[in-house]
Q: What sequence folds into this?
């Protein structure tokens, strides 16, 4: 495993040789894709809903400044605090300052991709604060010292035997003879162990699925109930979120919610959807007394007004991962980044720089499935193409690729020459073919190690086209 | 410059796309709200029972606990203390916060037909944490409090002033985090029974 996006090609090759990962990735189709397809089928007007979702997100991005200010004002009016972070370092420092203020030593966490993005857990550990992930998948990968491998299913790459081994190692005060063969045993054990952590923690950190300007609310969507316990049991609750999660109103969030859960897990709604406005009302016995929202930019605003800006519509459902042939082949860890699959390919070059994440944008067959299933209609392949163009323009593309494209362009710009060259190439390829297929070409040995392609039958596309006309 | 001003001016410098206000979305409305609610709640692994009056809830709760071989103890928040618990002498009432294996009762002010969802605006006499701490939650919901959509509930709550927390609860707690296979009872309740009080 690697945490370096530059090593994506090497990490992908290793992932392709991992038999356990193959089994896990098989569940993309049988579980996630099927569940989504059935949920979409059940909904009477999915395409209308998608169009509404797109319009709601576009409206929010076009009015980002006014909506964020309205949000801030309304959070403050209900007794909460709003913090702004330009980058990952500022986000970490703000969280640390709030925790120090609250004299917090242990922090429980709901699932937050943003906290992965800014590297919160390691930073807090280095500053003497223990963090405990409470989403089951996040908890498992935290115990293993791994990053999550899927946006909504962090332990996607593991099977139940892996989890049982992890629990036996980590929960070493429990009876070593206890049965951990069933998934239900594992879930029950995590429930028991983590409930004690909830009750003793000093502070809780969650993400947010939506922020609503009119109500100053953060909306949290979960299935386990851990996010709510994280908010309700400790005295301090911090919501760490990307600033693009803002929408105008709770009514807008309700439309996106219909898209989110169906696209993510195939559920019509998740078990828990929580609207959080400031601290819990004072009279409640379980009041979280201090409520903080940290709005993080970290490379998002520079995408506004570029050809990549639609990527900010993303509601992090992971449908694009679940339908991606590249993700299905290499899994999440190979990306070496928080966001993986098509959304990673479209977002990471913006957040991490084209130099760091250029391989992500290149790793696409452009099959277009991701854009078809995206609930907010992000043109993911077009955005990947944009990053490829940027890669080429900044001279980061490999020399051989640049040279190859250069040669092709030389002929493409000279149609008569192109026709002759294509005619020769078609004949040569036919001569080189075996069983009607090409199995190898000079300088392309690597490409052919796992592929072949059908040989031309002597005439070029242009000749066939002319004949048909 | 502060981070806040920096971010806001970066947005204003770059914001170029214009987008009209999205038209209001109208989700399809089920024909029979109570039936749709019950059907959807069951699909989400909740159990649904009908009772004729809220006063029948204690007896029904005693039955439910017996059927599940659970101790005859139910945790009751202040909002539910006025139910006639004394009519079921075999059932013990505990007003303390429930633990992970305890049964707890709650009155749900609203139901949502579209998804079989219970809506709990936070109230001093009905703590939000109870919906997550208990092992078995029993919700009492009036049939005439079942509204079509989440937006309808939000509209009602806005009219009376939004609370600090609204919990929308659909079925028991669950996780698919191990091998993408559904298991109930992750952190919140392992089971949820909804008692619908006929109008």
A:
């Amino acid at each position: 495993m690697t945490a370096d996006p530059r090593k994506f090609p090497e990490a992908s090759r290793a992932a392709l040789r991992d038999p356990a990962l193959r089994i896990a990735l098989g569940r993309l189709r049988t579980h996630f894709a099927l569940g989504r397809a059935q949920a979409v089928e059940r909904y009477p007007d999915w395409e209308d809903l998608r169009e509404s979702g797109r319009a709601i997100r576009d409206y929010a991005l076009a009015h980002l400044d006014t909506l964020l200010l309205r949000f801030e004002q309304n959070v403050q009016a209900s007794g909460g605090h709003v913090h702004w972070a330009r980058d990952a370092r500022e986000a970490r420092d703000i969280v640390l300052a709030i925790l120090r203020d609250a004299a917090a030593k242990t922090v429980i966490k709901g699932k937050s991709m943003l906290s992965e993005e800014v590297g919160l857990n390691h930073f807090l550990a280095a500053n003497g604060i223990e963090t405990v992930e409470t989403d089951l998948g996040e908890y498992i990968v935290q115990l293993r010292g791994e990053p999550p491998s899927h946006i909504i299913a962090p332990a996607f790459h593991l099977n139940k035997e892996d989890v049982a081994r992890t629990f036996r190692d980590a929960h070493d005060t429990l009876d070593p003879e206890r049965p951990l063969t069933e998934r239900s045993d594992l879930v029950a054990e995590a429930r028991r162990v983590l409930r004690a952590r909830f009750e003793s923690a000093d502070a809780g950190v969650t993400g947010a699925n939506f922020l609503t300007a009119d109500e100053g609310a953060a909306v949290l969507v979960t299935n386990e109930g851990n996010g709510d316990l994280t908010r309700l049991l400790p005295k301090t609750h911090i919501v760490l979120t990307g600033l693009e999660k803002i929408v105008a109103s709770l009514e807008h969030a309700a439309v996106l919610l219909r898209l989110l859960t169906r696209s993510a897990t195939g559920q019509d709604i998740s078990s828990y959807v929580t609207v959080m406005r400031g601290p819990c009302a004072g009279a409640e016995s379980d009041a979280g007394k201090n409520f903080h929202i940290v709005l993080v930019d970290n490379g998002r605003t520079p995408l506004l007004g570029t050809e990549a800006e639609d990527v900010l519509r993303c509601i992090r459902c992971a449908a694009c991962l679940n339908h991606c042939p590249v993700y299905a082949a290499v899994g999440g860890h190979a990306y070496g980044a928080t966001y993986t699959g098509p959304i990673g390919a479209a977002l990471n070059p913006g957040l991490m720089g084209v130099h760091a994440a250029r391989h992500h944008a290149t790793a696409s067959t452009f099959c277009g499935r991701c854009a078809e299933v995206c609930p907010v209609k992000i043109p993911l392949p077009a955005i990947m193409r944009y990053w490829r163009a940027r890669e080429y323009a900044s001279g980061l593309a490999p020399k051989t690729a640049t040279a190859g494209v250069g040669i092709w362009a030389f002929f493409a710009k000279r149609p008569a020459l192109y026709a002759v060259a294509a005619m020769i190439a078609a004949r040569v390829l036919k001569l080189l073919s075996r069983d009607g297929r090409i199995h190898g070409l000079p300088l392309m040995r690597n490409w052919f190690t796992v592929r072949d392609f059908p040989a031309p039958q002597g005439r070029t596309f242009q000749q066939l086209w002319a004949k048909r006309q | 410059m502060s981070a806040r001003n920096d971010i806001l001016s970066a947005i204003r410098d770059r914001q170029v796309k214009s987008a009209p206000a999205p038209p209001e979305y109208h989700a399809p409305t089920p024909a029979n709200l109570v039936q749709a609610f019950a059907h959807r709640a069951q699909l989400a692994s909740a159990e649904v029972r009908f009772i004729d009056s809220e006063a029948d809830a204690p007896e029904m709760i005693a039955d439910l606990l017996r059927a599940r071989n659970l101790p005859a103890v139910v945790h009751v928040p202040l909002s539910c203390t006025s139910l006639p618990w004394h009519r079921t002498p075999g059932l013990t009432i505990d007003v303390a916060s429930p633990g992970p294996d305890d049964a707890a009762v709650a009155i749900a002010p609203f139901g949502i037909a579209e998804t079989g969802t219970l809506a709990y605006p936070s109230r001093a006499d009905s703590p939000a944490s109870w919906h997550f701490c208990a092992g078995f939650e029993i919700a009492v919901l009036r049939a005439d409090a079942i509204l079509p959509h989440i937006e309808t509930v939000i509209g009602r709550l806005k009219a009376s002033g939004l609370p600090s927390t609204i919990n929308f609860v659909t079925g028991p707690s669950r996780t698919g985090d191990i091998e993408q296979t559904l298991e109930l009872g992750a952190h919140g309740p392992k089971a949820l029974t909804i008692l619908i009080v006929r109008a």
Notes: Residues 361 and 384 of chain A are 5 Å apart (CA to CA). Chain A touches chain B through 95 residues (CB under 8 Å).
